[in-house]
Amino acid sequence: MRTFIISLTVGLDYKINFRPHPWFVESLPALHARNAERLFSLLGTNGGLYLKIGQAIAMQSAILPPEFQKMFSRMFDDAPQNDWNEVERVVQEDFGKSVEEVFGVSFDADREKGVMEKTARASASVAQVHWARLQDGREVAVKIQKREIARQLGFDLWTFKVIARFYTWWFDLPLYSLVPYISERLSLETDFVNEADNSERMAGLVAGESRLRGRVYIPKVYRELSSTRVMTAEWIEGVRLWEKHVLTRPWQGSRIQGSPGCGGRPLEPPKQNDIAETIRNHPDKEHLKPNREEWKGANGMGGLGVSLKDIMTTMVDLFSAQMFLWGWVSELYHFLNTVELILNSATATHIQGTSSSEGFLLGNRSWF
To answer: Per residue in 28-48, pLDDT tens?
Structure first.
């Protein structure tokens, strides 16, 4: 109901005031600004697929007024994460087992079991990502779809279609032409089996291309721990792309060993005493993964020592191969995901030889 009311309000506002001299607003930019705020608030309040629709609109924001461009750029900010009980229900529904049984973890500091963080490391419109260390020592990123998405994919997508059809008729604009594209993309992006298939296909293509092999790395997907709404992949340490100073500052870590997770270097396990203390004192907000920032040096001012030119060159090479060589562009990789992936891979050979870079995990923040 909220969606229909606000959509009708926005439509009426434009129908009445979209003219050289608006009747009930001081200017056209003010008209755009208040309606951008209305729609942004609607999408953010409804969450889930509504945020995804907002991101799809934001990707095409160049055709929108500046006020909409500015407001919708915020659609890519981290979304609120679901409570842990919702995460447990998704795992139980998909696997028929508890989180503890599926991943072999314990939330009581059992030294014979693995560990998992209940607080997500990243949260976006469709899913959130939790760090875990399995019983066999593997560290993984567990991407879990938000439970409300299944419901929204049916009813709320239908609502979007109705509103798009109404606006197309009322304003004589081809807005409904966006519906088939957005509907198909949303259906694919909420199917994690499809996402895993794309990841493995891309890994095979990269491995078979000598110009990219050793420069691009695709983290492994663990199928036995994945389902339609849960996707588990290997964890590799990394930094955010926009932290340019961290990327380019000199490496201050060991000159013998590589970065955690890169070149086969083992990841230092979390300390059992620290885990027990955290679980006992902060059961709902534990961060159990070790910090692993030795490479920053004693003063914390070190970086990865990588070239931004090399990073961009690798990114262009990868996208060029997808478009002109393979004829297949994987929609698994959002822009930021792909860039982070390339950062890891652009220096993969250098990592193994001189230990100069961190690794990056695809989708650790936004497979979303």
So the answer is: 999 999 999 999 898 888 877
Spatial CA neighbour of 305 closest among 345, 257, 350, 341: 350
Average pLDDT over residues 156-174: 82
Distance of alpha carbon 12 from alpha carbon 289, whole angstroms: 51
Residue type, 90: V
218 burial via Cβ count (<10 Å: 0-12, 13-18, 19+): buried
Give the whole-angstrom CA distance, residue 247 versus residue 259.
13
Closest CA to 195 of 362, 28, 27: 362
Using the 8-state DSSP alphabet, how is residue 114 labeled?
A: B
Helix locations, 73-174, DSSP H: 84-95, 99-103, 149-171
Q: Other C-beta atoms within 10 Å of 113: how many?
A: 17
pTM, 2 dp: 0.76
Give 196-251 as a 3 state SS string: HHHHHHHHHHHHCCCCCECCECCCCECHHHCCCCEEEEECCCCCCCCCHHHHHCCC
Position 185: which residue type? Answer: R
Bridge partner residues of 231 (DSSP): 143
**Which amino acid type is present at position 30?**
A
Per-residue three-class SS string for 295-337: HHCCCCCCCCCCCHHHHHHHHHHHHHHHHHHHCCCCCCCCHHH
